[in-house]
């Protein structure tokens, strides 16, 4: 599985609208056959920062994602909204998706 985490620092005047701006991109990516997950979170200490956690079944699925029209569309408008170049971790990991955390279970 290809596991990717990206930190986006957004210009302050666009931070509140970021979830709506990435909605179409997110929905289209989640619909890709090789997408495992594609989830956004807002940084609690830095409200202008969003973290994207995504995974693809394999390198071919990741390549198809980057070649998709919705990816290219998102990359075309994002430079006008980000405050800095996003930071990325991109690695291959064993597994096919989320596992259960053994240290915490509901009481």
TrEMBL record:
Molecular function in Gene Ontology: monooxygenase activity
InterPro entries: ABM_dom, AI-2_Isomerase_LsrG, Dimeric_a/b-barrel
Alphabetized SUPFAM superfamilies for the sequence: Dimeric alpha+beta barrel (SSF54909)
Ranges where the ABM domain occurs: 2-90
Organism per entry: Streptomyces pyxinicus
Coiled coil: none
Short name of any one Pfam family annotated for the protein: ABM
Keyword entries, A-Z: Monooxygenase, Oxidoreductase
Protein name: Antibiotic biosynthesis monooxygenase
